[in-house]
């Protein structure tokens, strides 16, 4: 049974390795938990509390607009919100809410909606959407279009019925006129006969009455008219949805896949520098390099900065390469503010570099650094929205994401690349990222041990 003794030895060694425990057990358990909670709304489907909230403003306030709103309320997966703190929303308010990312989509029913829908005139519903949540907004938009088409068809049928009733009335009036004319002729003939009898001049008069049998209405024309009208309403709907950017007010341009994916994966892999930083620090500490350096007239903070700066520069180079690849190879737009991109990039790499120094300060072995670096990088990435978009996650998960630098960096990049915002709009994101970095830095300076 020598093989069993060898196997037991290796099992004991593996179970004593913190890095192996983290990668084999803690990492998959953490990812299973986070991804399951994050994707819970997707698998639960629409309806109830998990329905997509849709703020709506009714500027028309007619029976027709209220009827349209009631149809939207009956749509699965959509939860209408018409007021905030018991006060009706205004167009300005819902536009601001969408611009701030609190809602992916908002709808405005304009004035004269009821009047124009009755008259068969074109009417445009105004919608504001968050381009960074394009997947969600496209679903809501198609649902509203479906409701609008069903709503329009009802009025089309009503107008056609009214036209048919008018035609029937005209036909009945014509038939009554014919009958009246026939009876007038009949009475005139009878009068002539009576006069002839009075004058003893009897002249038989033949009276012919046309017996006209009523013709059955031809329903073929009516059916053809209904079919043609239905096709026309589908090809050229009278109720349309004008989609505008909540931040700019212009007609929104949907982001492409690269504007969504390049920032996400850039933020995710920017934090993999923590493994390199931790190992580099560990190797030089174990080799005695730090002792030799510190024996010279070199302060501890200079050694610390000297070890940190290469990680910072490499991190910036990584981000530049990834964004340049997306821009020059796939034609990805770099957004509306290059200075805003620079700010978020500098802040992101600062946070990741400082986290790398924290890893180096806390963990003492190569296996610990390897295991915990991977665990931190992937867990923070999953929580921060780089694996699953934040707007898909439940509200509690979106709030938890705010404790990760990933969420702030990703929001900053999306504000520039997708939402079309400027430098001043991402200052807060940059400051928060720098704040994360300083917290990591102070803790690492406190815990750092330069001796073996």
From TrEMBL:
Transmembrane segments: 21-43, 262-282, 312-332, 338-362, 374-392, 426-446
GO annotations of cellular component type: plasma membrane
Predominant location category: membrane
PROSITE patterns the record matches: ABC_TM2
Alphabetical list of Pfam families matching this protein: ABC2_membrane_3
Ranges of residues in domain ABC transmembrane type-2: 228-451
Topology class, membrane: Multi-pass membrane protein
GO MF annotation list: ABC-type transporter activity
Location within or outside the cell: Cell membrane
UniProt entry keywords in alphabetical sequence: Cell membrane, Membrane, Transmembrane, Transmembrane helix, Transport
PANTHER family (alphabetical): MEMBRANE COMPONENT OF ABC TRANSPORTER YHHJ-RELATED, TRANSPORT PERMEASE PROTEIN
Annotated family: Belongs to the ABC-2 integral membrane protein family.
Protein known as: ABC transporter permease subunit
